[in-house]
Amino acid sequence: MLRVAADVVLALGCGLRQGEVLGLSPEDVDFARGVLRVRRQVQLLGGRMYFTLPKGGKARVVDMPESVASALAEYFMEYPAVEVELPWGGPEPERETRKFALILTTTYGNAIRANLFNVQIWKPALAAAGVIPMREKGARWKASRKDGFHVLRHTYASIILEAGESVATLARWLGHSSPTITLDHYAHFMPESGGKGRKAFDGWLDPTALAMAA
């Protein structure tokens, strides 16, 4: 698997935010249980990168599909993790630093800057696939929420809900503080909204069944 492909696999297959993908360590991958432990993210502020807790200030455990586990195992064989040291909790120079072996790094062994990844890899890949127009020489990529890296997380959520997984479970995997937040964002992806309830009552109120009960 290509080095940059792991970013997409983790975001699409496990619903991680981009900063969480960039902060993932091999020690967070539990192949035996089939889960990922999301414990940190890499953020960028004022041109400086730093480690911090996932959004909401809480670590979480996310289900890892077999396809993702297989891709990661292949990736680990080709690209060993690299230890990276960054400030913890903010970009200020006086912050304490922490070291983590990161799954995804640059070819120079540094943490990946999300903004550079998006401009140099993500957007050109979308353009090459015909998803967005190729930018003119010297121009900037057009900013759009519809084709940002975060769309992979939305795709993950839609697939999970369409497969019939519960909102409460998805909320836990996404790291939402409440299932209500998940519903606000993704309720329209739930299959047969209202249909299951109608079918249940149709079964109870089936004329044949009522006749037999009488």
What is this structure's SSE topology?
Layout (H helix, E strand, L loop, with lengths): L4 H10 L3 H5 L6 E2 L4 E4 L2 E5 L2 E5 L7 E4 L2 H13 L3 E6 L9 E6 L11 H15 L22 H12 L4 H8 L4 H8 L8 H10 L2 H7 L1
Antiparallel strand pairs: 1-2, 2-5, 3-4, 6-7
Write up this protein:
This protein has 214 residues and is an alpha+beta fold. It has a domain at 1-112: hpI Integrase, Chain A (Orthogonal Bundle). It has nine helices and seven strands; from the N terminus they run ααβββββαββαααααα. It has helices spanning 5-14, 18-22, 66-78, 114-128, 151-162, 167-174, 179-186, 195-204, 207-213; strands at residues 29-30, 35-38, 41-45, 48-52, 60-63, 82-87, 97-102. A three-stranded antiparallel sheet has the order 1-2-5. A hairpin with a 2-residue loop joins β3 (41-45) and β4. α1 (5-14) packs parallel to α5 (151-162). It is globular. The model has no long low-confidence stretch (mean pLDDT 86).
- Which sequence of strands runs across the widest sheet? 1-2-5
The first-level CATH class name of one domain: Mainly Alpha
The strand count comes to 7
CATH-defined topology of one domain: hpI Integrase, Chain A
CATH homology superfamily of one domain:
Intergrase catalytic core
Model regions low in confidence, pLDDT < 50 over at least 5 residues: none
Instruction: State which percent range the strand residues make up.
Output: 5-15%
Question: Over all CA atoms, what is the radius of gyration?
Answer: 21 Å
